[in-house]
Design goal:
Oligomer: single chain
Number of helices: 2
Helix content: under 10%
Radius of gyration: 32 Å
Distance between the termini: 53 Å
Structural class: mainly beta
Shape: rod-shaped
């Protein structure tokens, strides 16, 4: 087993160096023990833990030094609003026949004596409660000055267990703890979060996304799974985080593809919802979720990812900045799902795989984080052609409709230099069918010719004077999505726009029945291919992304 003596830094390039084990500071025994009252039970390792006959308490422990008696209690349940310990109490019986006790104020706001009186020398610094790393547990530590016990022998009784004062562990007999390392040995989705100790959790309180209700986030890409850690600011807050308060998150790949993850709670259980396309892509694999004490751990199979080469990012759906970025697979022996290839141009053939490694942008049909499936698109120009690609997930809601026609292309972001296309079919003799079947197509691939939507329909044959064939489009209909690619003659576009071909510095396409976003290519068909690695949200470069403000005003064929 390879070991790397470094922290897993959430989303950092340090993961590139990873082996199968990782280390972060933890405690291990070496020299005279002290207990820090902070709600972290690690210092209680090696000290006797006592059973409980009360369902509210999992276990408890007690220790002492010359100044204090220290107590540790692990509760079953509990949160920032209330703790089960407050309905329990310690009984103290002294050897001389007298008695007292230890009681607790509401939500551990105070530690009192047996009659709810103040204990001299006990304040806020002498008690602490924190969420446990174990599922549905809460940890409490407190200390009582030795002078409270008056130097007498006594017996403690708590939750059915009695401990004599002389049997209480003396901390002088226990070695102090020194800092060692947590070892990363993988993540198990079980609601116990100790296996995340070796992973550096990123503070995301400063994230500028609207309705950010998270305080910590971490991601580990390990083998065939991506593991996600979230800590929310209040119970259930992660379900309402992000724009539109929908708990919508995403895994964004280095080719601009998004897998939307919607965190929900149904029938008392937390789960992640994905669209039908991703469900189909996972082929029976599932996304697992556990929640405890404001923390979530989620495992997403790599099969849920769309095209990627090396890196993914995690964050709110369509946010300007991810929560965790530059995430790579730490298992160097696994390349499950990775493309492992470089973009090498486009061939117009209806096969589409040559688009895999080319950055795509999102076309939103629904509002951000909505329930409707969104689509992805890209433009590319080369050798006198403009190529376009769209994968549409809307076909299941557009039965009897055509989500691809009409679509528009414009030059230099100017509506005065734009064209909308109509699809016609042309037979082997060049005869034009102005009204080919475009809806309710059986699964398969179909080719059409692109003409100006304003063309006269009096043309009978492509050889007729004045008829302009702008290019071709192939449409493939499938059971889970529709896909298309087209090839347009750049010189014919330029002539239509009254421009020289080299004056078309920016070309854009809009698919109005899918979304209002303009997909952008910046450059010329004869110029250098620019920005292939740029993000799909970039304002310039290969792609740009324009969020719509009001989708209700859109012209659509159908949803």
């Amino acid at each position: 087993m390879i070991r790397l003596e470094k922290t897993i830094v959430a989303g950092s390039m340090a993961l590139l160096l990873a082996g199968t084990s990782f280390f972060m500071p933890q405690n291990k025994v070496m020299a005279a023990r002290t207990i820090k009252i902070d709600g972290n039970p690690s210092e209680w390792d090696g000290i006797t833990a006592y059973k409980s006959n009360d369902s509210k308490i999992a276990k408890w422990s007690v220790s002492k030094n010359d100044d204090y008696v220290y107590f540790y209690v692990q509760q079953n349940g509990g949160n920032i609003y209330g703790q089960p310990i407050t309905s329990t109490n310690f009984i103290i019986k002294y050897e001389d026949g007298s008695s007292d006790g230890i009681r607790f104020g509401a939500n551990m706001n105070a530690v009192k004596n047996g009659t709810f009186g103040d204990i001299d020398g006990v304040g806020d610094k002498d008690k602490a409660s924190e969420p446990s790393q174990e599922k549905d547990k809460y940890e409490t530590e407190f200390r009582i000055p030795q002078k409270f016990f008056g130097g007498k022998k006594y017996t403690l009784e708590y939750c059915g267990t009695k401990v004599k004062s002389e049997d209480i562990t003396d901390l002088k007999s226990k070695d102090e703890e020194t800092k060692s390392d947590y070892v990363y040995n993988g993540i198990k989705i079980d609601g116990n979060f100790s296996d995340w100790n070796a992973v550096d959790k990123k503070d995301v309180t400063g994230n500028t996304e609207k309705n950010n209700n998270l305080s910590k986030a971490a991601v580990v890409f390990d083998g065939d799974y991506i593991y996600i850690y979230l800590k929310e600011t209040s119970d259930g807050a992660a379900l309402a985080s992000g724009s539109y308060s929908r708990g919508a998150y995403e895994l964004l790949t280095d080719t601009g593809r998004r897998t939307s993850l919607k965190l929900v709670k149904k029938d008392g259980k937390y789960q992640v919802e994905v669209n039908d396309y991703v469900n189909h892509q996972m082929k029976g694999e599932s996304i697992k979720v556990e929640h405890s004490n404001l923390q979530y751990e989620i495992s997403v199979p790599v099969s849920a990812l769309k095209q990627y080469n090396k890196k993914v990012s995690f964050g709110y759906y369509c946010a300007d900045k991810p929560l965790v970025e530059d995430i790579v697979n730490i298992d160097k022996g696994s390349s499950h799902g990775a493309l492992n290839k470089k973009f090498d141009g486009i061939t117009y053939d209806g096969e589409y795989s040559d688009w895999d490694d080319y950055p795509h942008s999102l076309i939103e049909y629904s509002t951000q984080g909505g329930q409707t499936d969104d689509s992805e698109a890209a433009l590319y120009a080369s050798d006198g052609y403009l190529y376009g690609h769209v994968k549409s997930l809307l076909h299941k809601t557009t039965e009897g409709k055509n989500e691809f026609m009409p679509f528009a292309v414009r030059a230099n972001k100017n509506d005065k230099t734009s064209i909308s296309f109509r699809f016609v079919s042309v037979d082997k003799d060049g005869n034009i069918n102005w009204n080919p079947k475009l809806t309710n197509l059986e699964n398969g691939t179909y080719e059409f010719t692109l003409v100006d939507i304003g063309s006269w329909t009096t043309y009978k044959n492509v050889s007729d004077k004045g008829f302009i064939d702008y290019g071709k489009i192939k449409i493939t209909t499938g059971s889970k999505y529709d896909e298309m690619e087209y090839r347009i003659y750049m010189n014919k576009l330029a002539k239509k726009f009254g421009l020289d071909e080299n004056e078309m510095k920016v070309l854009q396409a809009q698919y109005i029945n899918i979304g209002e976003e303009w997909v952008t290519y910046a450059g010329t068909s004869t110029g250098p291919f620019v920005g292939v690695t740029m993000c799909c949200l970039t304002a310039a470069g290969v792609l740009s992304y324009k969020k719509r403000k009001d989708k209700k005003s859109m012209m659509r064929i159908a949803e």
